[in-house]
Amino acid sequence: MNKGEDGMAEGKQTLEGDRLRIIVKERGAELTSLMLDGREYLWQGDERSWTGQSPLLFPLIGSVPGGTYTLDGERYGIPSHGILRQRNSRLERRSADSLTFRFVSDRETRLQYPFDFTLDLTYRLSGTVLTMAYGLTNRSDRAMPFSLGAHPAFRCPLEENLAFEDYRVVFEREETLTRRLKRDLLTGEREPFLTGESSFPLTQDLFSRGALIFDGIQSERVTLESPRGKRKVTMDFAGFPYFGIWKKGGPEGAFLCLEPWYGVDSTEGDSPDWRKKEGLLTLEPGTSFTPSFSVELI
Asked: What is the spatial distance between Cα 242 and Cα 215, in angstroms, rounded to a whole number?
């Protein structure tokens, strides 16, 4: 039987199932530990590369030009990846197999994003699968354009006797993909990446120009694995139209982010008008958006 327990430390909540155990920080509702049979799969952060672990991206993926945008004649400043990463959530619900954290808009959020909303993030355990489910509701009296995404970082290598370069990313289907090039923003350029292939090997140089950013992926599942190892991470991201893969730093950055997105970075030269931003979804007043993705550990 799955069981829940009190948070191990102030500002954190712990949930334990038959084989999985997670810890979630109330700040940002950010996953900070993901263990299978006592072995940690989530990156634990390092100041030499990246201190993040699994931030929530809302209502922005990436950045907008100059960190500002306009909406209905008003100008707003907004940080990269949005407004919730450093905000406290509250634990809304706990069950034997789930934790739900809630963000509620307030005066501070409206200074950066002028809408009323609630956003729930639920973590649910089932066997060796963690599901992360969102519940976004527009509490405003006007249509709300937004992006929403995840940024989880997994340890890579997953086993002590292996190296980052021993791993590969495997899609469930053969893919023909172009990589969208980026400086601070997308450049508008693309370069061929996969041509009828289902996998690619990891190298440090692969990320020397930043994240791999894709659209048009046919697969709904992707796996981080090594032919030399036993442990792997498989993500089911059905429905998400954009996908990012990223790491930072050299060998000290021993992680890989697998990032399903509803939305994408702005492109250099884009209009500052928020409603013209690529990849935005629109939520009508009083309606909700409830996507989810899952991670299976082996």
From this structure: 5
| Cβ–Cβ < 8 Å for 167, 71 | no
Half-sphere exposure of 130 (CA within 13 A, CB side): 28
Q: Which domains does the chain have, with CATH numbers?
A: 3-297 (2.70.98.10)
pLDDT, tens digit (0-9, with 9 covering 90-100), for 68-82: 999 999 999 999 999
The 10 Å Cβ neighbour count of residue 1 is: 6
Please name the residue that has the structure tokens 């046919």.
Answer: 218
- Segment 196-231, tens digit of pLDDT: 999 999 999 999 999 999 999 999 999 999 999 999
